[in-house]
Specification:
There is one protein chain. By secondary structure, the protein is of the alpha/beta class. About 55% of the residues lie in helices and about 10% in strands. The strands form seven sheets. It has a seven-stranded parallel β-sheet, sandwiched between helices. Helix 28 runs antiparallel to helix 33. The longest helix has about 50 residues. The termini are far apart. Bound molecules: adenosine-5'-diphosphate (ADP). Adenosine-5'-diphosphate binds next to helix 6.
């Protein structure tokens, strides 16, 4: 076997790399031979010995080096265990199905395992047994005791693979766990504590967010670090999912949308536009009739701008002459010299729609229709010039200027909101179609993933688009939500010390994997030579003709009892094919990607004689299609793609579903000029020429090798575009990512530290000097201001004589205050219960971080939206975003610290302690006549949070004696003794902060 592989491995970089690994394959097999004579226990003992040895190495780098050395032997142990399981023929259950073990690792699988261990992507075709491949590096890396994760695409596969491969791990003495959607935190923690853990990307990601953004103590966190992860279907997770981040959200406090208000008007506007476009299309038809192709083309181009899916337009695009005229008009308008004309053309419509970028734009006419009295209501004011004008006006006093500016700003904000709402509604009506991008279910709009066709309940389009679609469909408009915690899947996986991936299709995206994730791809040869026949695409003028041809091909295979797998790009298309098959009375299964378990079963049966299975692209992924009896003689499974996908990778995946492990199989794609891919990105001009040359008849098809090339060119163009979009999303997210890391690290330090007081003191050390500088470093040092701040924040009872700020430098004053504050704080704490005070200290910081971080996330969302408006002012939104995000972050950190200071003396573990503390304060601070002020012998009454007030005596400049009305901020709300403690410790209140109360 090795020789067969070696023969194939020459030349390319990939082959050289694999060739270098080949000697290890030989060594693994030699070890495997030797191990045959060992007893089960002796084999198993190796696991414990390695674990023991590795646990003594504390440096992770050093551990990795050691793993490298034991790799051949460890892989051989796994292979040998697999051999024993196979010989034994014990039966076990996997997802409630009885099973026996029937696999021993092939040589190519050993190669794949090595690639994964190196932290790379192993591209292995479908059916090559990636599930088994992963056992090798998972076993090896789990020996470190730091956890190895396998990431699957759905819960069902996580459970199936954990139970199935678990046979091998438990045989060898390792523990294996599996994360499932409905598990409670305790169960999750146990799963993560296992040597190897299986789970889906979103479960891993959400656990990370909950652990780091919400859990308030170590005991409440479930994960235990990010050491090694293998991502199955890595392309789907790192590339397709790259657009939607994981978000934990709660309802927003305010909602500003006006979708209901605008909906009737927008409906009218869309209707008017449809009428206008239909009229223009009729005029165009007449013009074409009269031989005026130029006018016809121009008119239809306009229709295309205003209603890209206009029926007459689509029909005309089938006619080569008209098509050419329209393309010509379009091309000519996009030259620089005709910009003005293009603008005019757009102004003849009510709005324009850009299908490619999903944007809608109102024209002057459209604006007037929506708001006849004030068409400017939809134009953002030029704030910068307005501000400059205000600044230059010498007649205005400064306060007037500020007032005017803030009025303009408010106006601008409300216009922006309005424009945003309208643009969203137009997109909802003109670009988003029911049953394509979304479905309506139980009075809810549910997004359909464009790649998988899966419904994604719970996910929402952002920026109010979801609400616009809800308004359009007349379902309940859900409140805007506020992000509590968010991360992209990509950034979650970047946390791992070592990351690897496997998939059947990575090669076309190798550059992206390398650039963004530093992941290199190695293509592993198949165990047996591939016998699949990939036919040339068949290209038709219209979708109708294309689908008829698809049905004919299915009929042929079905008559011959050859199984067929039909791949579609959308739910809509799969339903169309299903209806057509019903008419032909051909029994079939439709996979809409709803129930993973049933899905897997249907896919499993897809290779039986005469079966017809219709599936959206990734439905039932991860399930292998085995051929039924006699099917191989009929040519194996036949795969039919009803459309080329935007990404070549997805097409390759579909093709790869047949001809596994050397089986026979065939694949073919059907394409029509009306497909979105061809309309938007096809070399339109060239296609038109082709159609002319061949003078296509109804139902006639084109088929040629170089036509495949032009389809591929279109795909490459889209891939490139989508890559740039993803990169951009990531660039924006990187900013958030850095901030998140800083905040989460701080948060975890606070949770973990044995000495939270040190954290508190650090805050004092940093925040106090900044405040002092703020007051004293201006042109005029503001001593009274500083005094005021100190006295409302801390119970220091300073007055002019005692403070003597004037006699010290800025730094000395800071030092002076820091000492005083720390001293007072120590005294306060002395009155409290020692363990409770630790929880309280943690709570004070965590509370400040969480509250302000969530506010910050909200502001960052707004900023992200806002910078795009600035894009109009010729500025790069990303740079603007980075600069402002940085400033906002600096402010956030300062605010958190100030909030900590503010709450330091306003929180207590119990009221008696607080009372004691107050009693210990100098008598002059406590005056009976200060409203609500406690006296030494009157009990403190807990009150609602209030602003700290300072009553000043004497001349009012802070010189006289000061008394504090120190409000008790009940950071700890009234809780029952048996309820969980609000400090987040997880204990009951009576056993925690409430113990001495
Ligand atoms: P992939 O994920 O690569 O498409 P799977 O892990 O689903 O492939 O495995 C495909 C099929 O191949 C499974 O039914 C599995 O039992 C079988 N298989 C994998 N490796 C071996 C092996 N070494 N020997 C025998 N059968 C194997």
């Amino acid at each position: 076997m090795v020789n067969w592989i070696l023969k194939k491995l020459f030349g390319s970089k990939n082959q050289r790399e694999l060739r270098r690994m080949a000697p290890n394959v030989r060594r693994i097999n030699e070890f495997d031979e030797q191990f045959k004579s060992l007893s089960d226990n002796a084999l198993r003992a190796k696991t414990a010995a390695w674990k023991e040895e590795l646990s003594k190495i504390s440096d992770p780098e050093e551990q990795l080096r050691r793993l490298e050395q034991i790799l051949p032997e460890a892989f051989a142990v796994v292979k040998n265990a697999a051999r024993r399981l196979k010989e034994r023929q014990d039966s076990f259950t996997v997802c409630d199905q009885p099973m026996t073990w029937d696999m021993v690792h092939f040589d190519v699988q050993l190669l794949g395992g090595m690639v994964l261990h190196r932290g790379r992507i192993a591209e292995m075709a479908t059916g090559e047994g990636k599930t088994l491949v992963a056992t090798l590096p998972l076993y090896l890396n789990a020996l470190t005791g730091r956890g190895a994760h396998l990431v699957t695409v759905n819960d069902y596969l996580a459970r199936r693979d954990a139970e199935w491969m678990g046979q091998l791990y438990t045989f060898l003495g390792l523990t294996v766990g599996c994360i499932q959607h409905d598990q409670e935190p305790d169960v999750r923690r146990q799963q993560y504590a296992c040597d190897i853990t299986y789970g889906t990307n979103s479960e891993f990601g959400f656990d990370y967010l909950r652990d780091n953004g919400m859990a308030t103590s170590r005991e409440l966190q479930v994960q235990r670090g990010y050491h090694f992860a293998i991502v199955d279907e890595v392309d789907s997770i790192l590339i397709d999912e790259a657009r939607t981040p994981l978000i934990i959200s709660g309802p927003a406090t305010i909602s500003t949308h006006q979708y209901d208000k605008w909906k009737p008007l927008i409906e009218q506007l869309v209707r008017k536009q449809t009428m206008l476009c239909n009229r223009m299309a009729s005029e165009a038809a007449e013009a074409f009739e009269k031989g005026d192709a130029e006018l016809g083309g121009r008119l239809m181009f306009k229709v295309k701008l205003g209603q890209p899916r206009n029926k007459q337009l689509l029909r005309m695009m089938e006619d080569p002459d008209k098509r050419r005229a329209i393309d010509k008009a379009e091309l000519s308008f996009y030259t620089d010299t005709r910009k003005e004309e293009l603008f005019q053309l757009k102004e003849e419509l009510f709005f324009t729609i850009d299908e490619k970028s999903n944007e809608a734009d109102l024209s002057e006419q459209g604006r007037t229709f929506l708001n006849p009295d004030d068409p400017n209501a939809f134009v953002l004011p030029d704030l910068i010039s307005e501000f400059t004008e205000i600044d230059l006006d010498t007649t205005l006093p400064d306060e007037e200027k500020d007032k005017k500016k803030s009025e303009r700003q408010e106006l601008c904000d409300s216009q922006a909101e309005r424009i945003h709402n309208i643009s969203n509604l137009l997109r909802a009506y003109c670009v988003f179609d029911k049953d394509v991008q979304y479905v309506v279910e139980d009075n809810k709009v549910v997004i359909v993933d464009e790649f998988t066709g899966r419904k994604m309940p719970g996910r929402r389009w952002s920026d109010g688009l979801h609400q616009a679609v809800e308004a359009k469909e007349g379902v309940q408009i859900d409140r805007e939500t506020q992000t509590l915690a968010t991360i992209t899947i990509q950034n979650y996986f970047r946390l791992y010390q070592k990351l690897a991936g496997m998939t059947g299709t990575a090669e076309t995206e190798a550059a992206e994997f390398h650039d963004i994730y530093k992941l290199d791809v190695n293509v592993i040869p198949t165990n047996r030579p591939v016998a699949r026949k990939d036919a040339n695409d068949r290209i038709y003028k219209t979708r109708r003709e294309k689908y008829n041809a698809v049905i004919n091909e299915i009929k042929e295979h079905h008559a011959n009892q050859q199984p067929v797998l039909v791949g579609t790009v959308s739910v809509e298309a799969s339903e169309l094919v299903s209806r057509m098959l019903k008419r032909e009375k051909i029994p079939h299964n439709v996979l809409n990607a709803k129930f993973h378990m049933q899905e897997a079963e249907i896919v499993q049966r897809a290779g039986q004689p005469g079966t017809v299975t219709i599936s959206t692209n990734m439905a039932g992924r991860g399930t292998d299609i085995k051929l039924g009896a006699g099917v191989a003689d009929k040519g194996g499974l036949s795969v039919i793609g009803t459309e080329r996908h935007e990404a070549r990778r997805i097409d390759r995946q579909l093709r790869g579903r047949c001809a596994r492990q050397g089986d026979p199989g065939a694949s073919r794609f059907y394409v029509s000029f009306e497909d979105d891919l061809m309309r938007n990105f096809g070399a339109a001009d060239r296609m038109t020429k082709i159609m002319e040359r061949f003078g296509l008849e109804e139902g006639q098809e084109l088929e040629h090798r170089w036509l495949n090339k032009s389809v591929e060119t279109a795909q490459k163009r889209v891939e490139q575009r989508n890559y740039l979009i993803r990169k951009r999303t990531l660039d924006f997210d990187d900013v958030m990512n850095m901030q998140r890391e800083v905040v989460y690290t701080w948060r975890n330090d606070v949770i973990d530290t044995e000495d939270p007081r040190a954290e508190i003191f650090e805050v004092i050390d940093e925040a106090v000097p900044n405040k002092v500088k703020e007051y004293l470093e201006g042109e005029e040092p503001n001593y009274a201001g500083l005094m005021n701040w100190v006295n409302v924040t801390f119970p220091l009872g300073l007055n002019k004589e005692r403070a003597q700020f004037e006699t010290r430098s800025v730094e000395e004053n800071a030092k002076f205050l820091i000492e005083k504050i720390k001293d007072a704080y120590q005294r306060k704490s002395n009155h409290e219960e020692p363990t409770a005070v630790k929880s309280l200290e943690r709570y004070i910081i965590l509370n400040a971080i969480d509250r302000l971080w969530q506010e910050h996330l909200y502001a960052m969302d707004a900023l992200r939206e806002g910078v795009y408006l600035r894009g109009y002012a010729q500025k790069d939104p990303l740079i603007e975003y980075k600069t402002e995000a940085y400033d906002m972050f600096v402010e956030l950190m300062a605010n958190i610290k100030n909030e900590v200071l503010h709450n330091l003396f306003r929180s207590t573990t119990n009221l008696r302690a607080f009372e004691d503390f107050l009693g210990s304060l100098p008598q002059f601070l406590l005056r009976e006549d200060a409203p609500g002020a406690p006296t030494a012998n009157a009990p403190v009454r807990a009150r609602q949070p209030a602003m700290a007030g300072v009553a000043m005596d004497g001349d009012g400049d802070g010189a006289g004696e000061v008394s504090i009305d120190l409000p008790v901020r009940r950071s700890l709300p009234k809780v029952g003794r048996n309820e969980p403690c609000p400090c987040g410790s997880g204990k009951k209140y009576k056993n925690c902060c409430g113990r001495t109360a």
